[in-house]
Structure formats: structure tokens, C-alpha cells
Amino acid sequence: MNYILFDDNQRTKLLPLVFTRPVADIRIGILTIREKWEWYLKATTSSLTQDYLSKKYPLLKGNDNLLINGSVVPSAELLKLIWSLKPGEQLIKDDFIVAKRVGKEGVENDAGQEAITVQAEIDI
Q: Which of 21, 39, 40, 52 is the most buried (most CB within 10 A)?
């Protein structure tokens, strides 16, 4: 499984903090959001962010990718829901995309894919 933390359209609300980094690299306490995710996942992550940041924060695609919103702080309960996603499914809370599972072609532009939404009662 390949893990990608993505910036959504709400990123602009965090300017100027995110001019030089993806949202997941904002520090909350002693760790960044990315470091918290990597601790829970026991794996490294890459970023799907603005083009001008992609040189410093490269995107690594796999055949099976879990895209996780980089503004969401992880929890054990949330991780169980994300790991239960099947290919083509996405986890949404109040019109906010929390995570989606896509193939290699769907990483940057999954508009052509039929997404099955998994609604769940989660605290984010």
C-alpha cells in the first residue's frame, strides 16, 4: 500500500503557513501532521500538493494508493476506517473528503473514476 497526503482546496485558508510546505507539514505540538500519520501507518508518505512545491515534496505513486487529506490528524479509529476502504471508495465527513483509495492512474486526476462514498460517523 502506498500512502499519499494531499492538499485540498481549503489549503488557501492556511496561507501564509503553507506557502513553503504542504498542509501535512504543519507542526502541531512536537510533531507535524505527516509525522503523526507515519507513526500510525508505520510507513513513509509522499505529497500531492501544489506544482511549485512538488520538487521539494515529490509524489510517489504505487499501484494501490491511499490518499489521505493532509489536514486531518490521525487516530486509531480513523485509521481502521481508512484501511477498510476498497479500491474506488472514499471516506467523506460532511462533504469533506478524508481519504480515498485509487489506482496509479487515479492519483492526480480521479475525475473519470466512479467513486463509492463511505459515510461514517467520525470525529476529525
A: 21
Condensed to tens digits (0 to 9), the pLDDT of residues 31-87 reads 999 999 999 999 999 999 999 999 999 999 999 999 999 999 999 999 999 999 999
Give the pTM.
0.86
Is 89 contained in some domain? Answer: yes
Contact residues for 44 (Cβ-Cβ < 8 A; gap 6+): 3, 38
Measure the CA–CA gap between 6 and 69, rounded to whole angstroms: 5
Domain that holds residue 102: 2-119
